[in-house]
Structure formats: structure tokens, C-alpha cells
Amino acid sequence: MAIDQVHDTQHVYRKLLHSMSRPGTISSIHEIAERIVYKLPCYQATFLSVMTLLDAEVTFHILSEKNQELIEKISEYTLAKYAPITEADFVIVLHDDTESTIIQAMEYCKIGNLIDPQASATWIIECPLIANEAELTLTGPGIKHHTELQVGLTQEIWQARNERTKEYPLGIDLIFIDEKAQLACVPRTTSVEILEVK
Fold first, then answer.
1. Where residue 196 falls among pLDDT bands split at 50, 70, 90?
2. Side-by-side strand order, sheet with 131-139
3. Dihedral angle over CA of 178, 67, 71, 27, nearest 10
4. CA pair distance 22, 167, nearest whole angstrom
5. 18-54: pLDDT as tens digits
6. Residue closest to 123 by CA, chosen among 74, 50, 69
7. Quick one: which of 71, 78, 93, 114 has the most CB atoms within 10 Å?
8. Per-residue confidence at 198, pLDDT binned at 50, 70, 90?
9. Is residue 135 helix, strand or coil?
10. Is 101 contained in some domain?
11. How far, in Å, CA of 182 to CA of 115, rounded?
């Protein structure tokens, strides 16, 4: 793996922070992600983001059933512990996970509580392509008027997400990563209007 774990993950962290503070803004980590030479069952940019965000203090869950190799790699590089969906600080969705699996996981994942709303799950979701096109309209903090975002999730998944974020400050934060190592974020504070049924 020909990356600098300190310098490169700091760069990725800045990109993630930029996109999280400006929902719907697309950032690229392609130049760093392509330097990951190890064959993985996830996108290279997904693994790079996981390396950036996870450490020994947090837990993670992978929805895909074919995940043992990835669990071991994540634990090896980050020292994070694998946990059930109900306890995980980070939920990782691979590109081949089904709609029903994602919706069920959203129903059971952590959304925090009124005393500690940050005790919630951050989702890292693989998707084919991220674009600023009319699938969703995003409004809320960090967005001047509104912005459009396309990530290819079904209407039902977005409805499940909206259900879990309706009692602010409780909710979940979403990080999307595509095949081209682009990323975009939809935090719990963002209102999502579904424009097109996928």
C-alpha cells in the first residue's frame, strides 16, 4: 500500500470535512486512492476513507455478507472493532448491498440520544456515480439556497433516512463514495427532497 498514512489521511480528512460542512459538494480523492495497491472487496476510496475516520476508539459494521476479508483488513489498519449494527459507530455499505438490507440496517442503527446526539452512526456508502444532478434537492446548514445531488439510491432508502433524521438533533450522517473516488456528504442537519424515483 503505497500511501503515507499520516499525510494522505490528513488530506482525505480535510476533503471529508469540507464536504460534510457543505452538503452535496463533490470532492475528489482519486490521486491518493489510486495509490492503494492491495486488492480489496470495496472501492479504494472507501478503504482510504475508513483508514482516515476509524481508530481504536470506535466500532464498525459492514452490511455485506462477504465481508470477513474486509473486516480483518479494517481492523488491522485502524484497530477499530467490529460490532453489530445496533452498536456500530460507522456503517459501511458496499456497492452490491441490497435495498432491503440497507433499509433494515437504517431502522436499527444508532441515532444518538438527546443527552449525547453524537452517539450515532456515520454511514459510508458506495455508489456507482456521484453528480450534482436532479435526483435530490438538499437544503439546510452549509447550503446557500439549495443544491442538487445524485447518488443512485432508491426513493425508499431516502425515505428511511428521512425517518431517522426527523427528530433533530438525533439522526445519521451519510458519506457517499463512487467508483471514481469522488465523495459527497449528507449530514443529519440536511433536509432531503426526493425529486426522482430510481
1. low
2. 147-150, 131-139, 191-194
3. 0
4. 21
5. 999 999 999 999 999 988 888 889 999 999 999 999 9
6. 50
7. 93
8. very low
9. strand
10. yes
11. 34
Strand partners, 193: 137
Q: How many domains does the chain have?
A: 1
pLDDT tens-place string over residues 90-129: 999 999 999 999 999 999 999 999 999 999 999 999 999 9
- Measured distance CA(109)–CA(89) in Å, rounded: 9
Please report, in angstroms and rounded to a whole number, the separation of the first and last CA atoms in the chain: 36
Q: How far apart are CA 93 and CA 61, in angstroms?
A: 9
AA letter at 164:
R
CATH code: domain of residue 179: 3.40.50.11310
Q: Which helix (H) or strand (E) holds 103?
A: helix 99-108
Q: Is the pTM of this model over 0.90?
A: yes
Has residue 1 been placed in a domain? no
Q: What angle do CA 177, 112, 148 make, to 5 degrees?
A: 35
Q: 164-197 burial, b if ≥16 CB within 10 A, otherwise e?
A: bbeeeebbbbbbbbbebbbbbbbbbbbebebeee
Range of the domain at 123: 7-194
